[in-house]
């Protein structure tokens, strides 16, 4: 066997744990069938379509196999939840628009007298270190769990 007979790039691609390839069609309708809470005008159509398109280019069937549809939905639901947390009406006062865009932690305590709420930003970082905003929603946490299961193994790029 000669060196030229070996598919070096194929070997490197397989060892790198990088997956490529096309995806089956996944539409806004597919997403809303699984997550109807985001329909009915809760999220503008342009945002639904944008996040479906983003998922289509980010979540590869070749990596997630049978879990691909679930991962697509969780990815989209996560980002739309973050979008809804920042949504404010054009008529809202500036303070409400700014508050909608602030980072949210996990509520760690609350009081009734004189109303007091505390948020914990540290504990959510521990289990999902390196996963950015995915730790901030239940959808993102489920997505990370499946992503970890489907991407076990190292990644080496030559």
Q: How much is the radius of gyration in Å?
A: 20 Å
Shape: globular
**Helix-strand topology string:** HHHHHHEEHH
Strand order of the largest sheet: 1-2
Distinct helical segment count: 8
| Helix fraction by DSSP (H/I, runs of at least 4) | 40-55%
Give the averaged pLDDT, no decimals: 78
Descriptive overview:
This protein has 8 helices and 2 strands; from the N terminus they run ααααααββαα. It has helices spanning 8-16, 28-34, 45-58, 61-64, 68-86, 94-101, 123-127, 138-150, and strands at residues 106-111, 116-120. It has a two-stranded antiparallel ribbon with strand order 1-2. α3 (45-58) packs across α5 and α5 (68-86) runs antiparallel to α8 (138-150). The radius of gyration is 20 Å and the shape is globular. The two termini are 23 Å apart. 15% of the residues are buried. The mean pLDDT is 78.
Question: Helices and strands in order, then pairings?
Answer:
Layout: H1 8-16, H2 28-34, H3 45-58, H4 61-64, H5 68-86, H6 94-101, E1 106-111, E2 116-120, H7 123-127, H8 138-150
Antiparallel strand pairs: 1-2
Helix pairs in contact: 3-5, 5-8
Summarize the structure.
The chain is mainly alpha-helical and 158 residues long.
């Amino acid at each position: 066997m000669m060196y030229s007979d070996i598919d070096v790039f194929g070997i490197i691609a397989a060892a790198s744990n990088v997956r490529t390839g096309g995806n089956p069609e996944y539409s806004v309708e597919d997403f809303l069938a699984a997550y109807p809470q985001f329909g009915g005008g809760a999220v503008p159509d342009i945002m639904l379509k944008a996040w479906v398109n983003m998922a289509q280019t980010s979540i590869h069937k070749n990596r997630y196999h049978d879990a691909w549809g679930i991962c697509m939905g969780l990815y989209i639901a996560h980002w739309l939840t973050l979008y809804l947390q920042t949504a404010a009406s054009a008529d809202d006062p500036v303070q409400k628009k700014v508050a909608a865009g602030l980072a949210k932690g996990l509520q760690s305590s609350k009081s009734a007298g004189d109303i007091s709420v505390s948020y914990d930003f540290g504990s959510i970082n521990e289990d999902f270190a390196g996963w950015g905003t995915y730790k901030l929603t239940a959808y993102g946490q489920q997505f990370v769990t499946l992503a970890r299961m489907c991407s076990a193994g190292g990644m080496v790029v030559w």
